[in-house]
Amino acid sequence: MKDLLTLKDLTSAEILAIIDQAICLKRDYTPYQDALKGRSVVTLFEKPSLRTRVSFDIGIHKLGGHAVYLDQQNGALGQRESVKDFALNLSRWCDAIVARVFDHQTLVALRQHATVPIVNSLCDLYHPCQALADFMTLREHCGELDKVTLGYVGDGNNVTHSLMFAAAKLGAKIIVVCPPGHFPDGKMVLEAQSIAAQTGGQVTLSSELSALEGCDALYADTWISMGDDTPLASIKAKFQPYQINSALMASSGARYVLHCQPAHREVEITSEVMDGPGSLILDQAENRMHAQNAVLLSLLAK
Fold first, then answer.
1. 288 part of the active site
2. Is 255 among the catalytic positions?
3. Is 264 a catalytic residue?
4. Is-cis flag, bond preceding 179, omega within 30?
5. Which of 111, 146, 164, 182 ranks highest by number of CB atoms within 10 Å?
6. Strands, DSSP E only, in 25-65?
7. What EC number is given for this enzyme (predicted)?
8. Contact 192/160 with Cβ under 8 angstroms?
9. Under a CB-based contact definition with an 8 Å cutoff, are residues 214 and 253 in contact?
């Protein structure tokens, strides 16, 4: 693994190794407290962030490294100066670049021109670090991942894409339930299904909530992605039946609920479920740091 732009690029063994390493880190950072000593990681943010920024900053510190945060005060990537020049200059100083961007092509350009590893911390197409943390969380609570069935409910988006590829690579089952017209990218669905056919996994799409029956966990995300200016009122009627609430948890039989946050309480998920005994949402948030640190160790701790 030289970079992490999408989980499509990783093998099943590489994903499992990252999850195993993350679980090991979570137990005890002591053996790794100097793993990135003398290393610096630039974290670029085109979008606002709580979990991604803090988990990378503190996580890098736990490994003995130094995080350099760059926001848009110097201008948007590719505007004040080209992405190529940005990548070439940063590569002379830092050991890796973590980037949270609007457009996946920005990451492609960074990878093309940088001489240090690039990590996608979110773009319009993928959210690989989130999916790694999610399946780490499922591994902790559900056991072997090739026996897990995850139900994603809501809008098909970048998180959905990464969850599909993670499930497919790991031989897990994922059932994606969306309102008509709001499914994930069709090409990515076909790619994930092709991978799943080789691993024993399963990627299923439906608009029927009954398809969620038998899931181990249900997963919610916001109905409107960051940067989308669609008024909530214009889609609420269409999405309201897909809210994760106690009735849906009961009808599906799911023991656990996940949400990548930020969450809109009483919109895509109720507080009763979010704060309930089956909520793994804060475990997910914590596990972002451990999963990301496992990625950085794979890339930098040689």
1. yes
2. no
3. no
4. no
5. 164
6. 40-45
7. 2.1.3.3
8. no
9. yes
| Upper half-sphere CA count for residue 33 (Cβ side, 13 Å) | 5
Kindly name the residue from 260, 261, 290, 292 that is annotated as catalytic.
260
From 51, 53, 113, 130, active-site residue: 130
Percent helix, strand, coil in the chain (nearest 5)?
Answer: 50, 15, 35
Active-site choice (53, 127, 161, 259): 127
Cα–Cα distance measured from residue 267 to residue 245, given in angstroms and rounded to the nearest whole number = 10
